[in-house]
């Protein structure tokens, strides 16, 4: 069974192809990603109309390249991200998936983007035991309980304001470091002292919901720190700010992920989403997982950011789980909840 996955929920046009093997794992046959991230840089964030236009231009060439890379004329099934994401961006991938599925006369599966971020880890690390997944990207910060990839994920907590990646982007912007901010701050933080500035750890008091996150207070604390330094004509210690900010984010994310795994009673944590490329989030997650006797699974950075392979892999798991194909009348759902795995 060969599955093509199409992803267009944000600013990456992804087309991936996998083959499901008899042992239940998947083999990667093609991984094509075209990103419009450069076109959004001067706006400091993703501009939905620009993303949709870029998907329109990129989707058919990406599908052709993926078929050529896999050496096939058509797959046996098509899986596509139906939500959550940007409305106009999702429409492009879903329209392409429906059109090709109809033309090729193959089944079509409309899937949840977040499930793809979790499922992709099985490509590198094999079958997934019950676990807790921490997804962090520019648009999402979720702690999820995963029993079975073919079933809906259970939300344990999420951000009440900014996503973690969004906080990196906003802090980089206010320091004049460009977009996307995550990679720049990560690189600069290497030269800074993570304990130099005691930035706040949002929602970590005993009164707060155990698994929810808040990053907007942290972003404001960085802004106040910068304003005070400028008022007093002090030079901005950019590496210290980057390292201290990054430490605050990594501290809260990993603390809550470990707590969730312990409370739920699983021994595995899976990371996913573009912000898990962050070196400190990775190293602190490793340190704390090892100390707690937990196994940490992290896909390679290329598979952590949005891509089509993750949707193809989720598709293969869902099909193997016995799911029926989606109807061609199914509509995109920009606000699709974690609790819905397939529409
Ligand atoms: P979605 O939220 O739908 O997954 P997205 O495009 O926002 O879409 P990704 O492409 O997965 O998400 O990731 C991009 C985000 O990850 C940006 O916010 C970026 O700043 C952040 N990011 C990338 N590398 C790093 C890093 N090394 N450290 C911190 N954040 C990073
Ligand atoms: Mg992106
Ligand atoms: Fe994503």
TrEMBL record:
<dbReference type="InterPro" id="IPR043129">
    <property type="entry name" value="ATPase_NBD"/>
</dbReference>
<feature type="binding site">
    <location>
        <position position="278"/>
    </location>
    <ligand>
        <name>substrate</name>
    </ligand>
</feature>
<feature type="binding site">
    <location>
        <position position="186"/>
    </location>
    <ligand>
        <name>substrate</name>
    </ligand>
</feature>
<feature type="binding site">
    <location>
        <position position="306"/>
    </location>
    <ligand>
        <name>Fe cation</name>
    </ligand>
</feature>
<keyword id="KW-0963">Cytoplasm</keyword>
<feature type="binding site">
    <location>
        <position position="117"/>
    </location>
    <ligand>
        <name>Fe cation</name>
    </ligand>
</feature>
<dbReference type="InterPro" id="IPR000905">
    <property type="entry name" value="Gcp-like_dom"/>
</dbReference>
<dbReference type="GO" id="GO:0061711">
    <property type="term" value="F:tRNA N(6)-L-threonylcarbamoyladenine synthase activity"/>
</dbReference>
<dbReference type="GO" id="GO:0002949">
    <property type="term" value="P:tRNA threonylcarbamoyladenosine modification"/>
</dbReference>
<feature type="binding site">
    <location>
        <position position="169"/>
    </location>
    <ligand>
        <name>substrate</name>
    </ligand>
</feature>
<keyword id="KW-0479">Metal-binding</keyword>
<keyword id="KW-0819">tRNA processing</keyword>
<feature type="domain" description="Gcp-like">
    <location>
        <begin position="27"/>
        <end position="312"/>
    </location>
</feature>
<protein>
    <recommendedName>
        <fullName>tRNA N6-adenosine threonylcarbamoyltransferase</fullName>
        <ecNumber>2.3.1.234</ecNumber>
    </recommendedName>
</protein>
<keyword id="KW-0408">Iron</keyword>
<keyword id="KW-0012">Acyltransferase</keyword>
<dbReference type="InterPro" id="IPR022450">
    <property type="entry name" value="TsaD"/>
</dbReference>
<dbReference type="InterPro" id="IPR017860">
    <property type="entry name" value="Peptidase_M22_CS"/>
</dbReference>
<dbReference type="GO" id="GO:0005506">
    <property type="term" value="F:iron ion binding"/>
</dbReference>
<dbReference type="InterPro" id="IPR017861">
    <property type="entry name" value="KAE1/TsaD"/>
</dbReference>
<feature type="binding site">
    <location>
        <position position="113"/>
    </location>
    <ligand>
        <name>Fe cation</name>
    </ligand>
</feature>
<keyword id="KW-0808">Transferase</keyword>
<feature type="binding site">
    <location>
        <position position="182"/>
    </location>
    <ligand>
        <name>substrate</name>
    </ligand>
</feature>
<dbReference type="Pfam" id="PF00814">
    <property type="entry name" value="TsaD"/>
</dbReference>
<feature type="binding site">
    <location>
        <begin position="135"/>
        <end position="139"/>
    </location>
    <ligand>
        <name>substrate</name>
    </ligand>
</feature>
<comment type="similarity">
    <text>Belongs to the KAE1 / TsaD family.</text>
</comment>
<dbReference type="GO" id="GO:0005737">
    <property type="term" value="C:cytoplasm"/>
</dbReference>
<comment type="function">
    <text>Required for the formation of a threonylcarbamoyl group on adenosine at position 37 (t(6)A37) in tRNAs that read codons beginning with adenine. Is involved in the transfer of the threonylcarbamoyl moiety of threonylcarbamoyl-AMP (TC-AMP) to the N6 group of A37, together with TsaE and TsaB. TsaD likely plays a direct catalytic role in this reaction.</text>
</comment>
């Amino acid at each position: 069974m060969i599955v093509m996955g199409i992803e267009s929920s944000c600013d990456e046009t992804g087309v991936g192809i996998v083959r499901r093997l008899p042992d239940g794992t998947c083999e990667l046959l093609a991984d094509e990603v075209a990103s419009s991230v450069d076109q959004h840089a001067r706006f400091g964030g993703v501009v939905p109309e620009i993303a949709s236009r870029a998907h329109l231009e990129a989707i058919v060439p990406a599908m052709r390249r993926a078929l050529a890379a896999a050496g096939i004329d058509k797959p046996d099934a098509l899986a596509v991200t139906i939500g959550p994401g940007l409305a106009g961006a999702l429409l492009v991938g879903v329209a392409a998936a429906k059109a090709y599925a109809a033309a090729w006369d193959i089944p079509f599966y409309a899937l949840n983007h977040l499930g793809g971020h979790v499922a992709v880890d099985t490509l590198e690390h094999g079958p997934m035991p019950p676990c807790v997944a921490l997804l962090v990207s520019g648009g999402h910060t979720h702690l999820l309980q995963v029993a079975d990839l073919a079933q809906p994920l259970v939300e344990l907590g999420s951000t009440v304001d900014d996503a973690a990646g969004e906080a990196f982007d906003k802090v980089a912007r206010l320091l004049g470091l460009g977009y996307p901010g995550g990679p720049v701050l990560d690189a600069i933080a290497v030269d800074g002292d993570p304990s130099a500035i005691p930035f706040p750890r949002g929602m970590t008091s005993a009164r707060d919901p155990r698994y929810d996150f808040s990053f907007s207070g942290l972003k404001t604390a960085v802004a106040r720190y910068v304003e005070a330094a400028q008022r007093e004509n002090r030079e901005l210690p950019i590496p210290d700010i980057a390292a201290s900010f990054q430490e605050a984010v990594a501290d809260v994310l990993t603390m809550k992920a470990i707590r969730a795994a312990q409370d739920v009673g699983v021994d595995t944590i899976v990371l996913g989403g573009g912000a898990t490329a962050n070196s400190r989030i990775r190293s602190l997650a490793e340190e704390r997982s090892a100390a707690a006797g937990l196994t940490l699974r992290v896909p390679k950075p290329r598979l952590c950011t949005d891509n089509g392979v993750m949707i193809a892999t989720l598709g293969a798991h869902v099909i193997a789980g016995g799911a029926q194909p989606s109807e061609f009348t199914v509509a995109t759902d920009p606000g699709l909840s974690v609790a819905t795995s397939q529409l």
